[in-house]
Amino acid sequence: MPVSETFAVPPRLVPSNRAAAVFRPATLAGIRRETATMSTFRFAVPDWSGHLPGQHVMVRLTAADGYTAQRHYSLASTPGDTGHIELTVDRVPGGEVSGHLHTVAKPGDTVEIKGPLGGFFAWPGDRPALLLGGGSGVVPLMSMLRHRRETGSKVPLRLIISVRTRESLPYAGEFGPETTVVTTRTAGRLHAGHLASALAERPEGGWEAYVCGSNGFAEHASRLLVAAGQPRDRVRIERFG
Amino acid sequence: MIRRVGWLAVIVTRGFRSRGADRDPRLPPGQYDAGQAWPVLSAEVTPELTATDWTLRIDGLVTTPRTWTWDEAHALPRSEYRGDIHCVTGWSRFGTWFAGVDLDEFLTTASPLPEATHVLARSHTGYTTNLPLAELRSGRAWIAWEADGLPLTPEHGGPARLLVPGRYFWKSAKWITGLRLLDHDEPGFWEHNGYHNEGDPWHEERYAGE
Ligand SMILES: Cc1cc2nc3c(=O)[nH]c(=O)nc-3n(C[C@H](O)[C@H](O)[C@H](O)COP(=O)(O)OP(=O)(O)OC[C@H]3O[C@@H](n4cnc5c(N)ncnc54)[C@H](O)[C@@H]3O)c2cc1C
After folding, report:
1. Could you report the per-residue pLDDT of B158-200, keeping only the tens digit for each?
2. pTM
3. What are B18-53's pLDDT values in tens digits?
4. Residues 35-74 of A with CB under 8 A from B
5. In B, which residues are within 8 Å of A110 by CB distance?
6. Could you tell me the sign of the dihedral formed by the alpha carbons of B90, B93, B98, B102, in that order?
7. Which of A186, A72, A187 is CA-nearest to residue A136?
8. If we measure between CA atoms, which residue out of A83, A98, A90, A78 comes closest to residue A43?
9. What are phi and psi of A5, to 5 degrees?
10. Which among A170, A158, A155 is positioned nearest to A132, based on CA atoms?
């Protein structure tokens, strides 16, 4: 029996592995500050074969003696941005890769990337999407929102973002009425009330829910969704660790 | 800058400092030491599964298909694993301590038929992953319900998970409910979705095509 029929949450698509399995050079083209701790890194990847919103890449840094470090980063940019990708990276104190990107990297530098990876969290834009992001977990969800705007899609989409303060919200000015921002320092933790109006909408075919962020956020938000009646097999989770 | 290391052309990232000198030999290639942290990576909502709901079934190409309850499994001799675990996303954790029962205890009772070569492990949620039968025998795999002296938490696969430390950790199916023995290899969920079929951390078998 094919696994896609037995797993509780069926995969959206099977990614092409040939492109994903090789590292290739990516040249840093620009750095855009988002918040005090987050920046967006724009890379030129001339042979980029495209991706789906929600997918991620592996970034590899190599030192002069051959030592390497590699980490996963979600794609913030859209498939329409040909020849380039954008990653939004939160600076982790003492972090090896995020630290390098934030303090050493400058335009013209070359890293290596592998991807796009992860078909499970991808959103091809077909079904109504209810997106819940905590902190840097908004990154792959932003790719979905941007993609929907770029293509002029009318598929229902709601985005709920949990951040500590307004100042820690990246992509300032890009959110519209589809987005609800919950600032946890003032409003407290995300709770059922924050999800109620989106869930009450009941778009045709129901919501496909995408939850992304730290494990703590992912656990909390996915439990809220299920408690509010969202079917378990319509919840996709990307945990940043 | 492109440098040659042996036959390989390597792209060096300007200004990236080597931490090679303090790289632990226990780290497989491309991994980093997560220290005390134990990241959680699963794509599903964590199930609320209790010990009374939990069972383990071994069937397929065995002489005696059998289902164990929580109490029956706990009546088997306790066995421990102390050692390292490696996740495909890049972190490794040294000196983890799991307790449960050696998988051989269950397999011996079920008695695999000679033609059995592979296993499809299945979790309570429907998640599946495949392994060669040999990778699960001779003290290389466990059904684990304790980690670092405490009951395994739901996020980490509690009440009980498969533990196969010789492979990337997606093969150690959380919320394990069954093992089906087969005479052929049958890819599981992640193996269908872009991950390598074997998942050996020492050969860096992460993605299909590698
Ligand atoms: C699928 C996926 C997508 C992701 N997408 C994004 C994204 O879009 N944006 C984003 O910002 N992140 C993302 N992440 C997280 C990202 O991959 C990294 O984990 C993150 O950037 C931290 O990496 P780092 O190298 O900077 O820190 P690391 O060096 O890995 O350090 C992490 C933490 O461990 C501590 N630490 C490190 N070494 C030691 C040690 N020897 N002893 C004790 N403590 C130590 C550090 O102080 C730090 O607190 C994603 C993760 C996944 C799995």
Report:
1. 999 999 999 999 999 999 999 999 999 999 999 988 899 999 9
2. 0.90
3. 887 777 899 999 899 999 999 999 999 999 999 999
4. 61-72
5. 1, 11, 13-14
6. positive
7. A72
8. A83
9. -90, -15
10. A158
